[in-house]
Amino acid sequence: MDELMCTVASFFRNVGKNVVTDKEFTMEISLRYKWMPPADADRLLAVLLEKGHLEKDGEYLRPKFDVHATDVPFGFRPSADTVKALSKSRPSAAPADDLLSRLMARAESAGIKKKDFIVSVNAVQKRLNVDIEIAALLMLREKNIDISEYCGTAYDTVMKR
Q: What number of helices (H) and strands (E) belong to the chain?
């Protein structure tokens, strides 16, 4: 069985939905399941669309095969080789451009644990129904952390969507 098909089947079974948005896909893969960093999850999405495992219908993604008929090993997660291949296939500038990763690093440098950052950001995002980057900025600001250097990038990122 193709590992990419197992990844899609495992993901959709775990979330319990037939469709998700791009952002939901990458955030769930990286932050909830911790399968890979957000930039790699973005690349994974591009590869899955390219290879025809997922289809995009407007703003929604759906698998192009029956995920319940796919045999997925218990406790499946993409192999380290797959994640490593995704990391190598993206442009080298991508990690620096990933705003969420930079905000997470800023939080960690201020003494906030990665897990606490993710939980807090998800809570703010859910409560205010805003983009994840905006939720991260708001959470950092609530902790009295200077976010001024990230505001312009966040604005540009959100406006491109």
A: 9, 3
Compute the distance between CA of residue 138 and CA of residue 50 in angstroms, rounded to an integer.
Answer: 35
* Full residue range of the structural domain in which residue 138 is found: 98-159
**pLDDT tens per residue across all 161 residues of the chain:** 589 999 999 999 999 999 999 889 988 998 889 898 888 888 899 889 988 999 998 889 999 999 999 999 988 998 888 877 776 654 433 343 488 888 988 999 999 998 999 999 999 998 998 888 999 999 999 999 999 888 888 888 887 76
CA-nearest of 146, 145, 113, 150 to 134 is 150
Please, are residues 31 and 98 in contact by the beta-carbon 8 Å criterion? no
Extended strands (E) in 32-94: 54-57, 60-63
Answer for the pair 4, 54: CB distance below 8 angstroms, yes or no.
no
CATH number of the domain to which 30 belongs = 1.10.10
73 & 107 share domain: no
Q: What total of structural domains would you count in the chain?
A: 2
